[in-house]
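input
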Amino acid sequence: MAFGKLVNDKIVIDTNNALNYKNKEGDIQQRKIDTALIDVIKEAGQVAAMEHGAVLFSAKINDEWKNYFVNRDEKTHNIVLKPTNSQNRDDFIYINSNVNEQGYFYYTINQKRESAKELIEGVGVIERQNQDGTKSHYLETNVRLYNEELKQELKEKGNEFIAVISNAGIKVVNEAEMKAQKQEQLMQQTREIKEPQKTQDKSFER
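output
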């Protein structure tokens, strides 16, 4: 499942392009560039595999925006980024799907090609000042879905609506209402977990 919003007349997919994260101790740490890139590209690959339209990954590399068509292989789940302005395979960027000893999938960027090295070493990073005085850092990347029918529907519904994109189809929903429903579901799950615990505690009292 993915989420898309109309921004400047384009459907932008919600991705995690933040470099900052909190570790188990609650300290702010910074992810590696390639780790953050893989998260963004993996999300782009998932949307591309849903086949609701062409998906573009864009990155500011050495102060110049570059656009890539996103393709994900159905069997291997490998992802290929193909420049929109080049058919030269040397310019393609390959993201390989791997399996570790525990059987978990993970992605790596194939850095044998100069195009991949250029992306990792040259991708732009934005710095933002937070209210508490700390600084957050984000990759200068975005992912867009090209679907004229969906774009028109989002235009008609307005800024408060977003697209929920999945293999089953696309739903346009009110973002605030969806967040409220999620919060209610989370609270309900928490209540269900706590309730059996209370019953168990009472039985011990007898």
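quick obs: Residues 2-173 form one domain.
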